[in-house]
Design goal:
Blueprint: E1 2-3, E2 6-7, H1 23-36, H2 47-54, E3 59-61, E4 69-71, H3 92-100
Antiparallel strand pairs: 1-2, 3-4
């Protein structure tokens, strides 16, 4: 870009802060926070509300395959790695084992 006879420089960048713990670790931590909660129902926090607040909308880096960055749009707390992937006869466990040679240890 030029301004008269002077050269202008435009720098456009974005940065990300990376965490060392996994989303699974963070979900376990949030679940424990919610479970400890208060003494009565009003003080206890809903796990799904915590997930909405802390995880939904965040970017995560896949540490397998192509190491892409994904944005979390939703978390289905009713599903587990033992469930079948929609419109397939393959579980999440099978999918990750077959495609990435990853054995999921936490199946809950």
């Amino acid at each position: 870009m030029y301004d008269g006879m002077k050269v202008k420089m435009l720098i456009d960048f974005s940065s990300r802060i990376l965490r060392y713990n996994s989303v699974n670790d963070q979900m376990k931590e949030l679940f424990n926070q919610a479970r400890k909660g208060g003494r009565n129902r009003r003080q206890r926090v809903n796990v799904e509300q915590l997930f909405q607040k802390e995880i939904i909308g965040r970017s995560v880096l896949a540490d397998y395959g192509n190491h892409r960055i994904y944005r979390v749009h939703a978390i289905d707390v009713k599903k587990s790695p033992q469930d079948y992937i929609k419109d397939t006869n393959e579980t999440f466990l099978d999918y990750y084992q077959k495609n990435y040679n990853i054995k999921i240890k936490d199946t809950n």
